[in-house]
Specification:
Blueprint: E1 2-7, H1 20-29, E2 34-40, H2 46-56, E3 59-68, E4 71-76, H3 88-97, E5 101-104, E6 127-132, H4 137-150, E7 154-157, E8 169-173, H5 180-188, E9 192-196, H6 208-214
Parallel strand pairs: 1-2, 2-3, 5-6, 6-7
Antiparallel strand pairs: 1-8, 3-4, 4-5, 8-9
Length: about 220
């Protein structure tokens, strides 16, 4: 199954123009099995998303993109946020202690919002986002190579804020996912791989030029 792991909707992400119902229809039409709503520092959409998921029969998982003192982390499997902004390590520990998982979002994006080489220092990070739809090709490539070097799973997400972006990049999950617990299990156990909208797999031995052409 293929899930867009990184998407923002307009009620809880002020920089997004994306309506959830529209996003679902677009995701279906583009062959996705589900989406993850990951609004900025906000889990307020959880109850509504669960209701819409039940009504539509389409899988919607609500995570959150937490802006740590070191950069952004996609966090899944938690039901509340830290009381204050913390370091990446403290945020990872917070999420792991509650049975969740973290993904370094767009780690090398040139806007001071990624963890960058801090990924090499933290302990307990679940995965690295190697395909991000709003990040340039070389920065995505560098994220993928760092994930390989650290032996961490790679994921993909559109980081969609508009209709056109939904599903541009996503994650193939090599495990049946019905619940958030299933999703967390798949990430923690490396049962994930990033894909672009044409569903081209990122090969382990792909070189830099091939990767950039693929995007």
């Amino acid at each position: 199954m293929i899930i867009d792991f990184h998407l923002h909707q307009n009620l809880h992400s002020s920089d997004s123009r994306l309506d959830l119902v529209q996003a679902i229809e677009l995701a279906k039409s583009r062959g996705l099995s589900g989406i993850c709503v990951t609004d900025h520092d906000d889990l307020g959409y959880t109850a509504f998303a669960e209701k819409i998921s039940q009504q539509t029969g389409f899988k919607i998982f609500v995570g959150v993109e937490i802006y740590t003192l070191d950069g952004d982390l996609l966090c899944f499997g938690i039901d509340h946020l830290p009381e204050k902004r913390m370091s990446a390590q403290d945020t990872i520990d917070f999420v792991n202690a509650r049975g969740g998982v973290t993904i370094a979002a767009h780690p090398y994006r040139n806007n001071n919002r990624g963890l960058g080489d801090k990924m090499k220092e933290v302990v307990g990070l679940g995965a690295i986002e190697a395909y991000n739809g709003r990040t340039d090709a070389f920065s995505n490539f560098k994220a993928g190579m760092t994930a390989r070097a650290l032996n961490l799973p790679l994921t993909g997400g559109s980081d969609a804020h508009t209709n056109e972006e939904v599903g541009n990049f996503a994650t193939r999950v090599l495990h049946d996912v019905e619940t958030m617990s299933d999703l967390v299990y798949a990430i923690k156990n490396g049962l994930v791989e990033p894909v672009r909208k044409e569903d081209i797999r990122l090969e382990t031995d792909i070189n830099e030029n091939e990767y950039i052409r693929a995007i």
